[in-house]
Amino acid sequence: MASGLRVGVAGVGSLGRHHARLLRDLPGAQLVGIHDTDAARLRAVGEELGVATFDELDTLLDRVEALVVAVPTTAHEAVARAAVTRGVHVLIEKPIAPTLEAADRILEAAERGGALVQIGHVERFNGVLRACEPYLEEPLFVESHRLAPFAPRGTDVPVVLDLMIHDLDLVLSLVRRPVRSLAAVGVPVLTPSPDIANARLEFEGGAVANLTASRVSVERRRKIRFFQRSGYISLDLAAGVGEFLRLRPGVELIPGKPFPAAGIDELVERIELRSDGQEPLRCELESFVAAVQGRGPIAVTGEEARSALAVALEIVERIEEHVAHRAAS
């Protein structure tokens, strides 16, 4: 008989299906079944993965200890609160909720129910990001580009909550200082809410982040760069590769003093960074199971996700105030 943490998945669309696929064989977990309000999709995914299906969420909740919440963002609160009020631990896909009020209600219900809440900011588990951690010190300037072709998934919220929030979470977790000021612009292109956005954040202490996200691009791109006093880190999050550039030991470039007559490779050391090849979503699920079982910390807490949501919503508000958005509307 299968053993381990009894887990269910609510919502088996493009992402929830992968949660269910990975949970089938995850050590320490037992996938009890899946639920979706789309009956045809529920049956199709159930047959494809060979897992039990539940037409009613309550029936699934009666049989599990933990639940992955992969429904549309606008339904996060209802599903998550139904789980945590029963003491069922939840891994909620990002963002935690569409509003701060909804996020607070989820977290309050979880505290009352004694349930653990982890949020699915999966980019934290990207292998190349983990590979660069030994070289990350105190980023002073961060630049990210997260671009994707248009797809109906995620269009229930602005691109800031759909895509940019990945990079917001990364930046907030690495800079670890409050945002002092921000400016943002965005334009609705194919949906009523912004489909492309740019935000500039300035943090206490002087660090700056410039983030761009688009869901109406002709290409896919997930790149982020960190500039710090010790060097420059460039990561291709999609390809799982990157590099760290720094002056070679003993090289000192002094303003006003002629540079040594040497090529760039003699001055700058390039350190290749590469992902370990592990699937980030699998690593995220492993961390969730470990946290519920008391074998590890919560990788991304509800409070951290709420902080990212607060900044994201302020970006959306600034976009709506901007002339470019008003003209497009």
| Unreliable sequence segments | none
Strand arrangement in the largest pleated sheet: 8-9-10-7-11-12-13-14
Number of helices: 11
The major sheet is characterized as: 8 strands, mixed
The CATH architecture term of the largest domain is 2-Layer Sandwich
Distance between the termini: 57 Å
Number of strands: 14
Question: SS-based structural class?
Answer: alpha/beta
What is the domain total for the residues? 2
How much is the average pLDDT? 92
CATH class of the largest domain equals Alpha Beta
Return the string of H and E elements: EHEHEHEHEHEHEHEEEEEEHEHHH
Percent of residues in beta strands: 25-35%
CATH superfamily of the largest domain: Dihydrodipicolinate Reductase, domain 2
- The Rg value, from CA coordinates, equals 22 Å
